[in-house]
Design a protein that fits this description.
mainly alpha, 0% strand
């Protein structure tokens, strides 16, 4: 007689964890709530509404996280929300916002590095990100008289993109990192080089897209790690 297969040896991986199902809708609605009020900026409390989608993402990820990498990305979202509020308040808080986002990128880097793999395809796209980052840093350096905070931020932003390019796991994270770089590039171009039409709209659209994709990818990875029993990263 044949032996009965051990059903517990190979756990069934759910297509979507119940805690993840509502995230895209809640995040998108909160983002649209802010984007729909752009013509009336600034108004009382607008800085809180701006940060709300990222706070939603942070809470969702930190509640679901099953690994150190997931928690690190959640902390990055919290620092991003702080940066959102600082930049929305006043130009006097620009360096505060810049510092908050720099710390956020360091959190993302810490989340992505443990999953990095030096495979040819990943190295190729990481090289493309690095080349873009060098170009961005050179342009911003000339436009800002090589101010150290701006250059440091460009280096950290590029490093975040490179580690996302090298990372294994959900495919959503890398395009999210690219969208973040595009958003920051539009912001820097509008602030330091030439004013762009509808700049804030495009900056925020790409920014929310970035945070939503990164969070969605990390949520997917937390579900897979929990189902397969991967060691804590």
């Amino acid at each position: 007689m044949g032996t009965r297969p051990d059903k517990q040896r190979y756990p069934v991986i759910p297509t979507r964890h119940p805690g993840q199902r509502g995230f895209p809708a809640v995040f998108s609605l909160s983002a649209l709530a802010y984007l729909g009020t752009l013509p009336w900026l600034p108004y009382p409390g607008s800085f809180l509404l701006k940060a709300l989608p990222v706070l939603v993402a942070a809470g969702w990820l930190l509640h679901t996280a099953r690994s150190t990498g997931g928690r690190r990305a959640g902390y990055g979202l919290l620092w991003s929300a702080l940066g959102d509020m600082a930049l929305a308040l006043d130009d006097r808080f620009f360096l505060v916002g810049l510092t908050a986002f720099l710390i956020a990128h360091l959190c993302y880097i810490a989340a992505f590095v443990p999953e990095a793999q030096l495979q040819r395809a990943r190295l190729f796209r990481a090289g493309g990100v690095a080349a873009y980052g060098v170009t961005l840093g050179a342009v911003l350096g000339q436009a800002t008289n090589w101010q150290p905070p701006i250059l440091l931020y460009a280096v950290v932003l590029t490093s975040m993109g490179v580690t996302a390019a090298l990372r294994r796991g959900s495919w959503l994270v890398f395009p999210g990192a690219l969208a973040f770089m595009v958003s920051d590039s539009l912001l820097a171009w509008n602030r330091f080089l030439t004013p762009l039409p509808l700049a804030h709209l495009w900056v925020m659209l790409t920014y929310y897209l970035a945070q939503g994709l990164i969070t969605g990818g990390m949520l997917d990875d937390q579900m897979l790690k929990g189902s397969q029993g991967y060691p804590d990263s």
